[in-house]
Amino acid sequence: MQARRVGGRAGGSQASLYEEITSKIIAELEAGRVPWVQPWGTQAAKAQLNLPSNATTGRPYSGINVLILWGAVIEQGFTGQSWLTFRQALSVGGHVRKGERGVTVVYADRFVPSDERRRAHEVGDEAQAIPFLKRFTVFNTDQCDSLPGDVATVAPPPPPGVVEPVVETLIANSGVDFRIGGPRAFYAPVEDFVQVPPPAAFFEPINWHRTALHELAHASGHASRLSRDLSGRLGSSKYAFEELIAEIASAFSCAALGIVPTVRHADYIGAWLDVLREDNRAIVRAASQASRVAGYLLGFAPDADGQVETSGADCAAA
To answer: Are the C-beta atoms of 165 and 146 separated by less than 8 Å?
Structure first.
């Protein structure tokens, strides 16, 4: 079943771009593959787990581009997560090899049409901007030759035993009321607290940390933090959309910290498919929100010297 177009003022090319992205995600989910949980640490993944980044600026990609580039890394067997445009490769003295095909990523922006600007001026109202996506093409550093060594370098994995204390420091620094106990993990939005069973209840200790990040992703939506709509009831599309945000956000956070992401709530896949089929922009919006959540949470993690680089508030406003 194809995802339908919603939000009527987008042009045909914009609608087709949303359709293209959404249809691919739907196909992955229908095949039982979750795009934000790639087979890191297996023979299928030759690249080190991390968030994809621009090779020349060091800036990490965000939102739907993370899912697009992760998919390309696995499908094409690239050994790194660094990307750059054709011109960027030339600007640092390298070049994209002849015959290589790039990956299309998107840039989200907003614009105000002239008729909307006139209408707003006439009635003294605020002009309403329309979101749009712009395509551009990037290449993995594996597809390039003659790049400087520092551009083509693959980031090393974090040393063993480092990740768990970082997550525990992140939890403490977040200021969220975090309770340990009981038989299940959840976030209570009205009372504003997270509860997670004790680590001994998990088969692997790292699963406790994955679960903690998932529930903290929900907690980030409180009105005092990133202020998302948490009013959805179990079984509703609002509830499914919030779970989609938390699943992707925890995967992004895990990847940034060197933790292999997993699906925390595989039983929601059917509900996520319903959301994506109903709204062909839903996955783009969810991934965008998820990047914002991951940035917020990672702002509470210590740096290599044990200091917190950015407060959650600063990260949310960036």
So the answer is: no
pTM of the entire structure?
0.85
- Residue 161: what pLDDT? 66
Task: Please give the Cα distance from 283 to 34 (Å, whole number).
Answer: 13
3-state secondary structure (DSSP) of residue 21: helix
Helix or strand or coil: residue 303?
coil
d(CA 283, CA 276): 6
Q: Scanning the structure block, which residue is given the tokens 């293209």?
A: 20
Q: Give the start-to-end residue ranges of the domains of the chain.
A: 34-152, 163-317
Residue 7 tokens, joined:
């939000």
* CB neighbour list of residue 265: distance below 8 Å, 6 or more residues apart: 243, 247
Q: Please say if the pLDDT value at position 203 is more than 70.
A: yes
Judging by beta carbons within 10 Å of its beta carbon (0-12, 13-18, 19+), is residue 102 exposed, middle or buried? middle
**Three-state DSSP class for 137?**
strand
Strands (E), 189-296: 193-196
CA 239 to the chain's CA centroid = 18
Sheet with 82-84, edge to edge strand ranges: 53-54, 82-84, 130-140, 103-111
Structure tokens at 18: 């949303």
pLDDT digit string, tens, across residues 128-163? 877 777 889 999 999 999 999 888 766 666 666 678
Higher pLDDT, 116 or 73: 73
* DSSP state for residue 37 in the 8-state scheme: S
Q: 315 pLDDT band (50/70/90 cuts)?
A: very low
Asked if 84 and 95 touch (Cβ cutoff 8 Å), the reply is no
Give first-to-last CA distance, the chain, whole Å.
Answer: 37
Q: Is the sign of the CA dihedral 194, 200, 201, 203 positive or negative?
A: positive
**Contact, 248 vs 241, CB < 8 A?**
no
DSSP code, position 201: G
Residue 302, SS3? strand
Give the pLDDT mean for 171-189: 97
pLDDT of residue 157: 65
